[in-house]
Structures are given as C-alpha cells and as structure tokens.
Amino acid sequence: MISGSVIAVEAFERRTPIVEAVQKVGPAVVNIYTEETPSQIQNPFRNFGGNFFDQFLKDFMPPISQKRRSLGSGVIIHPDGYVLTNEHVIGKALRIQLSLIDKREFEAHLVGADIRSDLAVVKIDAKEALPYVKMGASSDLMIGESIIAIGNPFGLQHTVTSGIISALNRSLKAGNGATYHDFIQVDASINPGNSGGPLLNINGSLIGVNTAIYQKAEGIGFAIPIDKAKRIVNELIRYGKVRQGWLGASVQDLNPEMQEHFGLARAEGALVSQVMERSPAQIAGVQPGDVVLSINGKGVKNRSEYLDRVATYAIGNSMRMSLWRHGKEMSVSLKVAPLPKDFVERFVASRMGIAVAPITPQTFRDYRLASKSGALVVKVAPQGSAGRMGLLPGDVIRQVNQKKIANLEDFSRAVIEARNLSSVVLLVQRGRNGYYVTLEM
Questions:
Q1: Percentage above 90 pLDDT, the chain
Q2: SS3 state of residue 284
Q3: In which domain, by residue range, is 379 found?
Q4: Catalytic residue among 73, 117, 162, 195
Q5: What is the pLDDT of residues 47-67, one digit of tens each?
Q6: Does 195 participate in catalysis according to the annotation?
C-alpha cells in the first residue's frame, strides 16, 4: 500500500519548471474565434461601362461573399483585458470571441492591428477580474535555452509544447510574400491555431508571440520577440494604429559591382539612393551614396533589414547609424520624426513622377471623366516612372496594390503603406477603359 506522503513527494518531484510556468501563464492564454466575410469581386473594372454595364455585372457576376470561422490564440497582457495576438489571426473579423481555460467566454473588440509586424491587440470588456501575463524581455535570450509554447493548434485547446531556442534573428519570407526579420526560431512545432499564443522561457516570462505565418516548416517554429512587440502594442493601445515614423532616406540593395565600386569587403548594407529635403536623414548629414552598415549596433545586411530595423523605433526615438562613405566608416545620430503633412505630395512627385488631385464637379467635367471615384492624375513628369509607363493627365487611379481608391484620402493611405516597396501596381482608368501598370519606385 502506497502512503499519501509518498504520492505527495512524487507529485512534488514531477512539478518541474515547465509545469510551474504553464500553471502560472495558462489561465491567461485565450482561444480566439473570429467571423469573417471574405469577398471576391469578379470584375475589377466595375463602374467603367456606365449603368447598363454595371447592372449586367451585378446580375450575372455578383460578388462572392460567405462567412467562415477561423481559429487562433492570444494572451492577456493587462488586467484591463488587453489581449495580444497576431494580425493574421483576426484578419477582417466582423466578430471576435474569446474563451479561457476555465470555460469563460467573452466578446472582444479590435483595439488596433499592424499588418507589417503581424501583431494585433483586442480588448475584453469584462466586469470580473482577468488573469494576465506581464511582458518580459527578449534582449538576453540564449541559443539552447528552454522555451514553452501554449496555444490551440488545429483547434486542440490549450496545447503545450516545449523545446529550445534554435536560433535568433532569423529572417524568412512568408506565404503572403512579405519578408520578416528578427524571429526567434524554436524546435517546438507552431502550427495553425498556435498563432498569437505566448512563447515563454523556463521562468514563465513572456518572451515572444508565436506565429505560424510560415507554414512550410516542419518540426520548427517561429516567434516575434517581445521587445519588438512592446512598441507595437503601446502604439496600438494608445493610438489604435502604429504611427508612421520617418527618416526620409530611400535605400536599395547592393550587388557585387556596387560592392567593388564603393570599396566594401562584402555586398552587405543598404545603399542610400535618395534623401528627401528637410528630412531627419538630411539634417543628420546622410547623403546619397552612403551605405548603412548598422543601426544602434545591429547589422544591416540589405534593404529589407534596414526597413525592419527602422520600423522598431517610435516617433521621437533617436538612433545611431553607422555609414560607409568614401572608403571610411562613420556614424551619425538621427531622430525619428512623424511623416510630414506634405509627404504624399512630395513622395509621388519624386518617386512616381506624378501629381494627383481630388475629383471635383469641375474636374469631372473638365476631364470628361467616366467616374467620380478615384484619385485624378493632373501632372505627369515625362521622364518619371509614371511617364515612362504611359500615364497621362486625366487618368484616374482606382487601385493601389489591389486596394480600392475612392478618393484622395484612400490614395494617401495606400501610398504611405507602400512607401517602402520597390514597385507598386496601379489600376488606372482612362475614359471607360481600365488597365494595370507597375511603377518602379
């Protein structure tokens, strides 16, 4: 016969740090259900052919719309009910429902989401007390240290996996075509449903946000470092969005020929191709032809890594940038500024070679437009990107990278979102005809 004291001792011995971490954090992990309405418009040139043509499309080619439910994870990070998750988990959710391990269920509303970082914050408006986890730090992570992931893979609620940190600062290209940097790589599987859940160290500290955005991996997983997430979370909670910071320097990748020309040991860094007037970069003395080697001591291998490093700094933050100029290394200090009010006007003039204006009753008549929706092109520089691709004054921009443009405000938002891309795809309407065009930026 086994005594109760022996069983108690055995239970104590089995109470490992992993068990303690899971018991500490588990109650704050949520299962996220969302309702979405995906809509596929079968003809992007609707409204181009007048009322008769529009009615024909409406009758015979209607939009496909249906609701579906998706599943993901999240973690409560504040006693007021703020929940951290992935942006791709909530997507275009119409309704967000959360459930806890104790079977309580809540409605939540979106506080803010950031596609670039794949992070989002939703909020539970609960009257009762909620468990939560304080955000830890990811700056001192060690390869080989133990980690724990909690989530809801494939709908299996509150699943715990464990492993070690396999690598740090990983870059990978996700299924959506975007490249992400500075991931924590672990050998614990992170599958659909795990996305948005917490990655913990052996002490139960929140060190990352699990993401299954790269689904080709088998037997490995990736997480967004919590230090990177903190700034995004603060911006989303305070402003409902991530405010766009600005340095005013455009950069490009280096190739072996450029490496030799600039006297670099390796084709690594971000080559400054343009510096906007009155920008933080110009004020700091950055010049076209400089090569950015590092930002605050973190190496910059290419354009994508430069953009990702800069994106981690909030408006008002300062950074030290290491540059290669005329065969010597030097450094400058810059302060991240908010985008100026005339940014879009200056950007499209310098990078696209156009000027745009709203469609007013007067311009609608003057240009004999077929639609009152879009952004009107009023000037085209012949040698600019748009001029080389044949754009003309009187053309109407209806889409930017598949985002519908109803007015000048839509156009401005789309340009700001696309400002760090090397090219942009426009849907242009000329008269009653429409065509797509790619502009290099």
A1: 61
A2: helix
A3: 343-440
A4: 195
A5: 444 554 455 445 545 555 545
A6: yes
